[in-house]
Design brief:
Elements: H1 2-27, H2 40-61, H3 73-97, H4 124-140, H5 143-171, H6 173-181
């Protein structure tokens, strides 16, 4: 029962923070939705497919699975550790960005964040997403989820590259210097 609740609470908590934070930002006339940095259909599909993968892991934890085989218990524990770690990265990254957080590239002025987790990774939230995707694949051992996760990771890597171009244009030398100190992922 604790496993089921833990698996369920993490994505629910993150989605509450994500959408609740968006509502708070909108009250201050800040739009959380930026411009998709690449094809809008690919961009939105990859974002929504993350939730599909998360839902599959939640359902699997509640015994509603689509797996063709039983996941060995040690592998489940690894997946649970990755799941928790990924959501911790997502939550810390989201709070660390504060008012600069956007889904897509910002359309207005923001602040370059280079402190906290952003001293270790330029993209801790994306690392968190990738970690949760890996966790779901390991937990379910579902080959369809593997293909979806690979698609999402590939699209998100392209999103990151486009966002880096945007940040380089907006912040110039400050961003270039930041990139020389901090890796893209880890």
């Amino acid at each position: 029962m604790i496993e089921r609740l833990a698996v369920t609470v993490f994505p629910v908590l993150f989605l509450i923070v994500l959408f609740g934070g968006g509502a708070l930002l909108r009250r201050r006339n800040i739009d959380q939705d930026g411009e998709p940095p690449l094809n809008k259909i690919l961009f939105l599909a990859s974002k929504y497919l993350i939730v599909v993968v998360w839902a599959a892991m939640v359902l699997q934890s509640w015994g509603i699975g689509f797996s063709l085989m039983q996941t060995p218990r040690p592998l489940k524990w690894v997946a649970l550790g990755l799941w928790a770690s990924g959501f911790v990265l997502l939550l810390i990254g989201r709070f660390g960005l504060g008012e600069s957080f956007r889904i897509g590239s910002p359309t207005e002025s923001t602040v370059l964040k280079a402190d906290g987790l952003f001293r270790v990774s330029r993209n801790p939230m994306y690392v968190g997403v990738f970690t949760t995707l890996l966790a779901a694949v390991l937990y379910t051992l579902n080959p369809i989820l593997l293909f979806i996760a690979l698609f999402v990771a590939a699209v998100h890597h392209r999103i990151i590259l486009a966002e880096e171009d945007h940040l380089r244009t907006v912040f110039g030398e400050a961003y270039t210097a930041y990139c020389s100190r901090v890796r893209r992922y880890l």
